[in-house]
Amino acid sequence: MIPAKKEEPNATSLEIQEDVSRDAIATAFQDAMADHLRSHIPGTSINEETLLATDYLNQFHELVKLLEALPVDPSAFAADLKRWHAVDYEEHFDRAETGNNSLATAAYRRAPQRVRRQFDSAIARLQGEALRLVAAVGRSLDTSSDLEMACSGAASRLRVLIDDADAIANGYLPEGDSGKDATPNRITIDTLFRLRQR
To answer: In sequence order, what are the beta bridge partners of 53?
Structure first.
């Protein structure tokens, strides 16, 4: 019986084993997936750089409009205010009636880490403050205190937080993001003004 010839590993396989770590392979795969997603983004509301869609913020814009309408006719809008609650990013796109729901969710999951970290933090602040302000305005409704002042203050505060999240989704990271991929872009008054004018 002739013993089976032992195959020598070729140079290519050794180079792959030695030079390519699992992390490098995972990073290359993630980059390829992000590039693939970006190829489908033109024509949608998703930012090609951050992979985030500002459509998510519509629920907070609607809350601001509700707060502006409430003092004019409290009986018509009080129930809407008390029912209001925020939904998270993926749930929002699961419910949305647009053709890009799955793409928006997939893109969000592939967003650059530094962007996701800043955006998720801004959204957590926005959701928490929105719930606090809704409760505070609800108390003004129940106690007949100065409803117009409470609604005006709440709407102004929400606009600032919405602008912060909107700026991040459009590629402007707040100061203090010192991660290895930190970008020199900063949120400035000019940036917020340009975003507001769109």
So the answer is: 46
pLDDT at 179 (0 to 100)? 47
- Cβ pair 101, 92 in contact under 8 A: no
Residue type, 194: R
Distance CA 162, CA 12 (A): 52
- Place 157 in a pLDDT band, splitting at 50, 70 and 90: very high
122 or 146: which leads in pLDDT = 122
Residue ranges per domain, the chain?
Answer: 17-197
Number of H helices, E strands in the chain: 9, 0
Q: What is the pTM of this model?
A: 0.71
For 47, residues 6+ apart whose C-beta sits below 8 A from its C-beta are: 41, 53, 54, 169, 170, 171
CA distances from residue 166 to 10, 49, 56, 118, 189 in whole angstroms, order as listed: 52, 14, 9, 11, 13
Residue-level pLDDT at 44: 77
